Amino acid sequence: MDYPFNLKGILYFPKQTDKLQVMPGEIKLFSNQVYIADNIKEVVPEFLMLLKGVIDCPDLPLNVSRSFLQNDGEVAKISKHITKKVADKLVSVFKNERKEYESYWDDISPFIKFGCIKDDKFYERMKDIILYKTTDGEFKTFSEIPKYDDKVYYVSDMNAQAQYVKIFKDNGIDAIILEHNIDTHFVTYLEYKEAGTKFVRIDSDVDEALKADEEGVDAEKNNKLITLFKDALGMEKLEIKAQALKTEGTPAVITINEYQRRINDMNRIYGDMFGANNEKAKETLIINTANSIIKKLTEYDDEKRNLLCRHIYDLAVLSQRKLSAAELEGFVERSVEVMDLV
Is 180 helix (H, G, I), strand (E, B) or coil? Predict the structure, then answer.
């Protein structure tokens, strides 16, 4: 471009191979084809440092210092204009070549999301072309993604949360996939920017999403079930609920407090900087009273009933996360005992 600045350059998004972190980029700055420096954030915004490429700006003096760049008004304008050009290009590709845009969205999304978090103006330019991949493999914008009572359900690990994904799909409830580390921050940012919309991981609110009609509920029978599981598991801190879910094939599921889990995720990535004291996120065991095994549970003697309660809990945990070494050992032993019942 030659207006409002004399500037030439090429920037590109490097392909990302790691979903857990974003690899840093490298932007070389030149003045009239004379190399000045790499990655000068006063000229190129910090979040665009994740890109790679070169920029040649003859308007910049060869002998530049950080203090000069920080205090020069023209440099600030160049920085803002580069951001605008990147956003304009992405918007153009989205509008004219959406399928092409979708094909590389997984690679560029960490850059876009990081940029939105760092720069509200960049978010305003990009918000209508930020894509969200659904569990059906479709790409949708924020206005297109399904919302349920102003909630957006999401998956952070398709393999670990496969059981929850299946339950949701069986009930016609769609979810989006947010698997990158940056997404932990991005969903919080979106809730701030898109007031009234709450993002909920599918294992955090499954009881509310899939709760069946409570007409004809036998409260006394449900309380008895809760007591049976509490006695069998002996876990005082574990909250237990009994309710009918819209799926009969699953005897129980575990839900996790969304807020505490997000804090734990951030602490896991950055250390204990959010002051959660490494407290484990609250778990709730939801006993599915619509399940045939749960319905027959009271018919067994105490020993068999306790064994089945433990095994049902193991299966619920296994559907939510990996078992620890001790948990896995106990699960295998109980599995053998359960097969002896057949």
Answer: coil
